[in-house]
């Protein structure tokens, strides 16, 4: 589940924190990184559970309406299409989701206002009204409604964001990613599937945890040496005016290129240049690209940076 891009962003944040607090060890930074990654996985499960709680609240309100002394016609004979949503029933019955939430004590019980306000927003959405008005009660229509709830309502839903920010400092930055992974998971759900159907694993590929640990450790241990290397290629810039985040990004990029000979240089460069577009200044991506190109040239000339693909190409021409 955790993407390589997200790992790089989390590594970057830990390097930034370390360079701003020199009394922090790389071991402590690695523990914080591991914790941050685990909390993203918690968020994935917690947000997936949200649609179940919203559905439960809708059913509860429907029953309360029927019990009024003088219910309206709509309250006496409500449209039960959302209450009977087959896809939400499938999510509710998923044992791995239930077990994980119970184990990690993930619940919306302490945030009833999020559930209430989200249901109100759902009722007001055009896609919900169209769903309720359609005569079909097909599983795929139920599934599409839930996907629209996650893709169109949640990312910018302020009550949700405020609640998450209060619960954990790491969650607010990971909402967009967690929602995208939930939608991917939901698209794979099939009618009639087993309640034991697994959800996305924490790491998409074997070795991702080791990747994160090695890049972070190398960036921290060699931060001073990498800073000197970078400074040599910023002669045309006033060093004190170079954004600190730019320096952190370049240190982390160099650490990855040096630590993993099997990752092509172009891949690493492109990743950190893209990250710079979101986490640094408007001009940072061009600046970082230029400096890292020169850094790579120097390291290659010194033969301290040799990539596996380049070695393979040399052997192929022998």
SSE layout and pairing:
Elements: H1 4-20, H2 26-66, H3 73-76, H4 86-92, H5 95-104, H6 112-124, H7 126-133, H8 139-153, H9 158-167, H10 175-188, H11 208-221, H12 223-231, H13 244-259, H14 265-279, H15 284-301, H16 308-316
Can you give a write-up of this model?
- Helices cover 69% and strands 0% of the residues.
- It is mainly α and 318 residues long.
- The protein is elongated and about 85 Å long.
- It folds into two domains: 23-188, no CATH class; 222-316, NusB-like (N-utilizing Substance Protein B Homolog, Chain A, Orthogonal Bundle).
- The relative contact order is 0.12.
- The chain starts with a helix and ends with a helix.
Specify the biggest β-sheet.
none
Kindly state the number of beta strands. 0
Helix residue percentage: 55-70%
Rounded to the nearest angstrom, the radius of gyration is 25 Å
Shape estimate: elongated
In percent terms, what proportion of residues is strand? under 5%
- Average per-residue pLDDT, rounded, comes to 91
Structural class: mainly alpha
Provide the succession of SSEs: HHHHHHHHHHHHHHHH
Give the helix tally: 16
Ends distance: 41 Å
Low-confidence stretches: 312-318
Tally of individual domains = 2
């Amino acid at each position: 589940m955790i993407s390589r891009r997200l790992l790089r962003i989390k590594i970057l944040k830990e390097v930034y924190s370390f360079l701003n607090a020199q009394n922090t060890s790389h071991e402590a930074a690695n523990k914080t990184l591991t914790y941050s990654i685990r909390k993203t996985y918690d968020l994935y499960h917690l947000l997936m559970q949200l649609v179940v709680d919203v559905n439960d609240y809708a059913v509860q309100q429907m029953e309360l309406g029927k019990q009024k002394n003088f219910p309206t016609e709509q309250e006496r004979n409500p449209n039960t299409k959302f209450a009977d949503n087959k896809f939400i029933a499938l999510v509710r019955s998923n044992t791995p989701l239930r077990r994980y939430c119970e184990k990690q004590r993930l619940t919306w019980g302490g945030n009833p206002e999020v559930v209430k306000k989200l249901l109100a927003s759902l009722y007001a959405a055009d896609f919900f009204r169209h769903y309720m008005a359609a005569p079909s009660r097909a599983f795929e229509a139920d599934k599409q409604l839930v996907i629209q709830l996650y893709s169109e309502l949640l990312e910018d839903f302020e009550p949700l964001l405020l609640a998450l920010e209060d619960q954990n400092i790491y969650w607010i930055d990971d909402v967009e990613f967690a929602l995208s992974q939930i939608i991917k998971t939901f698209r794979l759900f099939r009618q009639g599937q087993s309640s034991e159907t697994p959800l996305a694993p924490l790491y998409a590929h074997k070795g991702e945890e080791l990747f994160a640990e090695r890049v972070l450790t190398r960036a921290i241990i060699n931060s001073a040496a990498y800073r000197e290397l970078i400074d040599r290629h910023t002669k045309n810039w006033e060093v004190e005016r170079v954004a600190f985040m730019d320096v952190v990004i370049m240190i982390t990029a160099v650490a990855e290129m040096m630590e993993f000979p099997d990752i092509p240089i172009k891949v690493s460069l492109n990743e950190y240049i893209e990250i710079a577009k979101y986490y640094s200044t408007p001009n940072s991506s061009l600046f970082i690209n230029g400096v890292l190109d020169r850094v790579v040239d120097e390291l290659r000339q010194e033969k301290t940076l040799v990539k596996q693909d380049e070695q393979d190409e040399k052997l192929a021409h022998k």
